[in-house]
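User: For a benchmark we're assembling, each entry needs the component sequences followed by a predicted structure for the full assembly. Here are entry 17's components. Please fill in the structure.
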Amino acid sequence: MNMLAVEIDKKSYPNGTCAIDGLKFSAQQGEFVAIVGPSGSGKTTLLNIVAGIDQQVEGNIVLNGQSQLPVASTTKPTTKYQAADIGFMFQESRLMPWLTVKQNIQMVMDKEQGVETPYLSQLLEQVGLAEFADNYPKQLSGGMKRRASLVRAFINRPPLLLMDEPFQSLDEPTANTLRQILLVLWKETRPTVLFVTHTLREALALADRVIFLSDRPSRVIMEYRVDIPRPRKLEDDAINDLHARLLNEYPQLLSGSLAGSPSDSAQASTETEIKI
Amino acid sequence: MLFSSFSRLYSLLGLLLVWHIAAVLLASDLLPSPLSVFVSMWEHLQSGELLYHLAITLVRVAISFVIAMIIGVAFGMLMGSRQIWDRTLDSLIILGLNVPALVTIILCYIWFGLTETAAIFAVAINKIPMVAVAIREGARAIEKEFLEVGQVYRLSRKDIFFKIYLPQLYPYLFGAARNGLALIWKIVLVVELLGRSDGIGFQLGNFFQFFDIRSILAYTFAFAAVIFIIEALIMRPMESRLNRWRQ
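Assistant: Structure for entry 17:
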């Protein structure tokens, strides 16, 4: 059975713009799914809907067989995810600046577990933040803040982890380290991951399956299963080959005004919004 | 820290020095020297009457402060987060901000009699709009993104309020509290002068009848000293504790 089934018939913004129109996909328990699409294609909106932040939507989100959205978008939401069902990594670290690293994580922890668990110390150790647990976010670098927010996302061992371009605007070595940490943590607890990115190469390096979204109004234009065995690296030949082959075979992925990645000389001439 | 405490002291000592020199040069009953004021303060203290009136005034300040803060904060939060409330209450707030304190005090005494309740009500009414305006600004500046974190991680409403919403309001709460204290004790004195038979305001009125400038200054400084102590022992330590993350 699918762990997560997303069926969004329609989602419009308050100004009337249609953001999502007939977007459907599902994910298996423990599957790492990357969602790739041009900027403004409603990827963040999609994650917000799945997370329950945005409930003004026609459609349904089914998590572990339980419907998560009210039947009609006008009725008040009733059932919600049980606490600790979701981990969320936002585009920014979104750590509360008035709380220390540790307090930020403890704030979202299941109350039954207590707040001083060995798992908290273990995670902080694993991401290299053990010494900085009592520091305030202001005292940390950008990469360290993302590490803290990665720990926050994993701390409740959520069955579903939503990640919204979590490593954007970091320098490449830092982003790479964080990707490796993410994969290690994912292997340990095996949550289902929805990883939104506009970098195809990142999607191929991380995911079991890549879902391609169209420009707004957003819908799924293609799904692709990545069969390259792990561990993978962004610059692996296999990733390079697959990357080139995909773009060659499915030129529709490049439709629209897609912007190229300046660091990628091979494709630098292709104007794409999906970074390639 | 130590240096800054001392520099506060230096400015006060400087003021005393200037005052003393001016008193000596003028040699007039209109400006008694600091020393004679402190002697007078000591006499009033010894008789017990200074402490009695000081305590009564402080209780009035405390009660009106708490009432004004609770009501003002509630209105401010409501207006900052709900546009409909903002629009509905805005004219009332503007009116409240601009009606002179003296008018509300007189009206309260006429309508409700020369009672303790009328006095406290008059003070609170004067302060509520200012607190509401300050807190409204804070509520408008609340970062929605942080609240979303609470929502995503299924925090209870109580946790979202106390751990995510309220900490963002602290600077505004402190601003309102500090200004509030300064303003409220000034208004309390007027209220006491006009319609009470005890408290520092009442006493100042009596001293005024007799042109007893020494006692007026003695009472004023005694009260200022209390405010200094509240600031140094409660407000400042609390503020620096809550603002630790900014350093």
